[in-house]
Amino acid sequence: MLGINRKFINGLKPTGFFPILSLKSASYRLDICSSVHKNSEIILPKSRAEIYLNNETFTPRMAGAFARSAQLMRESFAILKKDKEMLWFPALSSFFTIILFFSFIFPMAFAPGSFEKNQGLVAGLLFLYYLFSYFIVIFFNTGLITCAHIRLHGGDPTVKDGITNAFKHIGKIFAWAVVASTVGVILHHIAEKSRGIGRLFAGLLGIAWSLLTFFVVPVLIFEKLSVVESIKKSGAVFKKTWGENVLGQFTFGAFFLFLTLLGLLPFFFAFISQTMPPLSIILIIILYWVLLGILSSTLNGIFVTALYLYATTGKVPAGYSKEIVETAFVPGKR
Known about the structure:
Elements: H1 6-11, E1 41-43, E2 50-53, E3 56-57, H2 61-82, H3 88-110, H4 112-117, H5 119-152, H6 159-168, H7 170-193, H8 197-212, H9 216-222, H10 227-262, H11 265-272, H12 279-313, H13 322-328
Antiparallel strand pairs: 1-2, 2-3
Helix pairs in contact: 2-10, 2-12, 3-5, 3-12, 5-6, 5-7, 5-12, 7-8, 9-10, 10-12
C-alpha cells in the first residue's frame, strides 16, 4: 500500500459515508434593535441592561432562534419514532459507500506501480469514485426524503416507497450525480494545487456550492424541473429559509458532536491510566459512532424536507408545531 498514489487516496475520502450536507461556515447578523412598544420601560441597572414589556424580560432574538431549532430537532425525532424504517436509507448508503471505497482501494494495493506511472488513469478513477459515491448518496437520500415527505403529509411510508421513487427518478439522480461529482473533482483539484488563500478560496466555493444546492434533491424529485432549474430553485428556497436552515444545521451538529465526543471518554480514561481499552470496548465505540451518524443523517433528511415543504407551500408539515414553524420562517410563494 506504500506505493499507492497519495493524491488519489486523499481524493477517496468517502464523500457520502453518511448523506449529510454539512455547512462548514456561516455568518450571522444579530439584529437586537427591534421596535420597542410605547409602554416599554427601560431599566439600566449597574451590571446589565434589561428591557421590560408588561413585566416580561426580553431575551435576544438569536437565543429564541436556537430554542426554536432545538424544538424542531425534537419534533423531527418524534417523527422518526413513528417511521423508524427511515433509518435504513443512511445505513444502506453507508454500506454501499464502504463497498465502493474498498473496490477502488484493492486494485491499487495489488498493482501500485501502474497507478503511480499513469496520472491520467488516477484522475479518471478519482472522477468515477466521486460519480458513484455521489450517486449512492443521492439515491438513498431520495428514498429518505420521499418517506419523510409522505409522513409529513400524514401518510405511513415504507422503505419500498422510498426505493421505488428513487428508481423512478434514477435518470435525474444520475444527471445530478454527474454535475455534483464534476464540481467536487474541480474543487478538489483547486484545493490540491493551491496554497494559503487559494485553498481558502476553494473551501469557500465548496461552502457556497453546498448552500446553493441544499434543496436540490427535494426540488428534483417533487417538481418537474431539470437539474439546472433545480439548482436555481434550490438557491431560491435556501434564501427563504437560510436563517433557520443554518441555525438548525448548527444545532443538529452541536448536539451530535457532543454525543460523538462522549465516545472518546474510554480513550481519555485509558490515557490517564496509561492502559489500552479492550478490543470489545473499541468495537462498541465504533458501532456507537456509526449509529450516531445514521441517526444524524436521518433527522437531517426529515428536517430538510420540512423546511422545503413550508418554504414552497406555506403549510406547516404534519408533526411540527404550528407556532414554532410560523415564527421560524416566512412562507414562500410558488
